[in-house]
Design goal:
The complex is a heterodimer. By secondary structure, chain A is mainly β. Chain A is about 0% helix and about 50% strand. In chain A, the strands form 2 sheets. In chain A, strands 2, 4, 5, 9, 10 and 11 form a 6-stranded mixed β-sheet that branches. Chain A has a 5-stranded antiparallel β-sheet with strand order 1-3-8-7-6, with no helix packed on it. Chain A is globular, with a radius of gyration of 13 Å. Chain B is mainly β. Chain B has no helices and 11 strands. In chain B, strand 9 and strand 10 form a beta hairpin. At the A-B interface, strand 5 and strand 9 of A face strand 5, strand 9 and strand 10 of B.
Chain lengths: ~110, ~120
């Protein structure tokens, strides 16, 4: 059972378009992280959100943590080919040292 | 700083062969992890080490063993490789952070691509 559901699983859009990807759960998380993974490399941490309703911006990327701390979204404005990659969300449930991982959203931005 | 390093980058094994994947981190982190990544399944935790001297099973430990050699190094051993262990293996390290709540951020190595024939 996947505790963190990411949607869509795959998204291919043109450069300059906006997009949103989602990370949803029925469980409450104490914090949630977003990672980006490029082909042939390991995931790289983008952001951590810890407060319900928190919004964080990283240039053209906006991350939001749901008020109930069960879900999160990543919005990209004016997507660029350099945004191409696999976006993974991971949640911390305070249970131990482990993170709960979503299966990822594969994003392709076409020039 | 190199961050998290892994060796080898690629490996091909025959069924029944053994091998050890090496991982080292230079960030002085207490916790280290081994994951496998298969298409469409995200990252699955094999084993983790919360601190030097301790190791614990994750979601998919069968067929693997680990050793936390010291604070820097955490190795993963396949005693008798099987085709089902064909995957990309990632090592990660993390430290406990505090920003009103305690949380971990994980830092990953570049991965080892293993094929078992």
């Amino acid at each position: 059972t996947q505790l963190l559901e990411q949607s869509p699983q795959f998204l291919s859009i043109q450069e300059g378009e906006n997009l949103t990807v989602y990370c949803n759960s029925s469980s409450v998380f104490s914090s949630l992280q977003w990672y980006r993974q490029e082909p042939g490399e390991g995931p790289v941490l983008l952001v951590t959100v810890v407060t319900g309703g928190e919004v964080k911006k990283l240039k053209r990327l906006t991350f939001q943590f749901g008020d109930a701390r069960k879900d999160s979204s990543l919005h990209i404005t004016a997507a660029q080919p350099g945004d191409t990659g696999l976006y993974l969300c991971a949640g911390d449930m305070d249970s131990n040292y482990q993170l709960i991982w979503g299966a990822g959203t594969k994003l392709i931005i076409k020039p | 700083n190199a961050g998290v390093t892994q060796t080898p980058k690629f490996q091909v094994l025959k069924t029944g062969q053994s091998m050890t994947l090496q991982c080292a981190q230079d960030m002085n982190h207490n916790s280290m992890y081994w994951y496998r990544q298969d298409p469409g399944m995200g990252l699955r935790l094999i084993y983790y080490s919360a601190s030097e001297g301790t190791t614990d099973k994750g979601e998919v430990p069968n067929g693997y063993n680990v050793s936390r050699l010291n604070k820097r190094e955490f190795s993963l051993r396949l005693e008798s490789a099987a085709p089902s262990q064909t995957s990309v293996y990632f090592c990660a390290s993390s430290e406990l952070l505090d920003r009103d709540v305690w949380y971990y951020e994980q830092y990953f190595g570049p991965g080892t691509r293993l094929t078992v024939t």
